[in-house]
Amino acid sequence: MLAHRVTMVGSGSRFASFGRGALNPLLSCARMNWMDSSRTRNGIMAAVVLTLALACPTAPADATGRPALRASQAELQHSLNALAQRAQPGVLGVDVLDLRSGIEVQVNAHRAYPMMSVFKAPLAAAILSQIDSGQLASGQKVILKRADVVAGSAVPSIGAGFHGEQMTFTVEQLLTATVSQSDNTAADALVKLAGGPQAVTAFLRAHGIKGMRVDLDEAGLGRLFEDLGPDGKLGTHESPQQAHRRQKRGYKAFLGDPRNRSTPLAAVAFLRKLHNHELLSPTSTRHLLRLLQAQTVPRRLRAGLSSDIQLADKCGTSYSLDGETAAYNDIGILTWPDGHTVIVAAFLMGSRASRAQRDALFADLARSIATTLHPSPAGENPRPQKPPASQAR
Asked: Band of the pLDDT at 4, cuts 50, 70, 90?
């Protein structure tokens, strides 16, 4: 069964502002007419009623748009429900918030999903917060040793290019690699620098963000997935069959583990507060948004958007085992040239779809959001974004 909700957030109808203050001049005029002509009370009441009748048609321009907004909500809700059905037997959780209209549409949004590399966005925010407070500096040097290298990144980065027994990086280099290139080695270095995973969760809670938690770094997630002990070492002389059974145990344990998870609602709350400068200084806010905009691989939501829409996003991906992918995610801020901003968080868990099918699901989600909440003027056909040949994947 799909869990969905449609809400309207924001300023509300302008009818609410048409109150006593707006009628004071008219009532004053009515009192003068009373004094001048000694009309009866019934006459005054009739004048007031007439005044209200004449005023109401010119009340809020907002009111005439409400049916259109409700239609957009219903259309987008229908699209989200259809995408969630299409994702089955996997579970697709989505929250969409339009900052201009206040429309918020959800499906399976209260459930907590594995974040995978999505956690690198709040991690970077926690680091930038410490830079804002003077605890860290962007040019501060960090020494990484060969033992600190963790496999995995969206594009070849610090881990893939590591040479020798140790290398030195600045905090800024680690931030870029973590957010824009999704490098696991850089992310784990920042987790240590932040004070551990619990420091990232504490940062979120301090800013009123619940439903998102960071408990493990990338190395910890890897040990969980591989069903390894605390030392992260494999048993000796393990057969392929034994390795597969161990990985199946790890995969099952990962899907049942509550750590490093977020609800779509919490992810949207995080991005909304980031966008509204509620988490960081203006300089650090702009910097993190630029780092998120620079993530061009993987292309999930981005693949369904026209080239004029700016996307600041962070993806997260688990490996697949026996045809099932534990986690496939993308959260982001969509901004049109006119400043219209929509925030979306999409998490797909336990999917048995192929990679191409999963990518199409996310692209169709982004396309539905764009066409429903910001339709193009008649006659315009926005061109979809095309990835550089070197980055298409």
From this structure: low
Q: What is the pTM of this model?
A: 0.81
Of 182, 184, 185, the closest CA to residue 167 belongs to 185
For the chain, what is the HEC assignment?
Answer: CCCEEEEECCCCCHHHHCCHHHHHHHHHHHHHHHHHHCCCHHHHHHHHHHHHHHHHHHCCHHHHHHHHHHHHHHHHHHHHHHHHHHHCCCEEEEEEEECCCCEEEEECCCCCEECHHHHHHHHHHHHHHHHHCCCCCCCCEEEEEHHHCCCCCCCCCCCCCCCCCEEEEEHHHHHHHHHCCCCHHHHHHHHHHHCCHHHHHHHHHHCCCCCECCCCCHHHHHHHHHCCCCCCCCCCCCCHHHHHHHHHHHHHHHHHCCCCEECHHHHHHHHHHHHCCCCCCHHHHHHHHHHHHCCCCCCCHHHHCECCCEEEEEEEECCEECCEEEEEEEEEEEECCCCCEEEEEEEEEEECCCHHHHHHHHHHHHHHHHHHHCCCCCCCCCCECCCCCCCCC
Retrieve residue 71's tokens.
């239609």
Please name the amino acid found at residue 90. G
Neighbouring residues of 201: CB distance < 8 A, sequence distance ≥ 6: 212, 213, 214, 215
Strands 4-8 and 324-335: unpaired
Distance CA 116, CA 326 (A): 10
Q: 313: closest CA among 328, 326, 327, 294?
A: 294
What is the per-residue pLDDT across 283-328, written as a single tens digit (0 to 9) for each? 999 999 999 999 988 999 999 999 999 999 999 999 999 999 999 9
Which two three-digit tokens encode residue 62? 């907002």
pLDDT band at 30 (very low <50, low <70, confident <90, very high): very low
Return the pLDDT at 376.
Answer: 77
